[in-house]
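DM from R.C. (forwarded with permission)

"hey, sorry to bug you on a friday — could you get me a structure for this? deadline for the figure draft is monday and I only need the backbone to look sensible"
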Amino acid sequence: MASRISLDLDVLRSFVAGVELGSFALAAQRMNRSTSAISAQLKKLEEQAGQALMRKAGRGLVLTPAGEIMLAYARRLLALNDEAVQAVQGSGLEQGWLRFGMQDDFGESLLPAILGQFTRAHPQFRLDVKVARNQQLLDGLAKGELDLVLAWDGGQQWPYQQVMGTLPLCWIDSKSSPVTCVPDSAIPLVAFEAPCLMRAAACTALEQAGLGWRQAFCSSSLSGIWAAVAAGLGLTVRTPLGLPDTLQLRQDLPALPEIRLMLYRAESAAATGCERLSEVVSHAVDGYLHGLQRY
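My reply, with the result:
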């Protein structure tokens, strides 16, 4: 009977980092190792797999079909490893109560993963979640009603904050009933009620381009925004996060800025529990943003 091969998690972590960063030299920097050491790890992984995981494409490397399979399993193995470590380390934590806030943009995509991983690893903690708009979340943090908030960067400075990533703002239209932009006619906008960072970005971009706009639909919920755009009532500006299949990106309108995604923590939050929740949120966001690179 052939001996079983045990994959090295440290090697898998370097492999995933190299693929996600698009460079094994950058992966070496992140892992605090030499480029030659990372190359040796990749060679070892290919020897264990019995076939090439990467191939040359121009000046860079791309995954082979076997590499794509290995990448999917590597992410699962690393996620399970990290969850196991968190569960063991957190087994001695005292009971606590954490209040976490996030936006509608992440409700369906990120919230289930965050809740599942944290509650499995730290069942002794009670986790309350509030899904709301950006300003409501930041107000809740300032008033001591929330401990940790995942929100867009509106220029606020907080003693405890961490950049999660940067996403493009995009013009979004209906697939079945796209808006026809007629010269000298106001462009119909679908947006949240003011104040709204993305509404402001849309208006500024149009005004700087000398284009007029009108408010065609106003909503207090993201589901309302998506429904109105899908019905052809107007265009909206959001990130690609959670983009429904009924909608599409528009490329023929004025350029929009990028927006940073931030993780804010209340100064009074329980240090250990909040730190563990921050780790879970960071891991979930990192994986999700990687899947949006095609935009």
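R.C.: lifesaver. The mean pLDDT is 84.
me: no worries. The longest helix spans residues 65-89.
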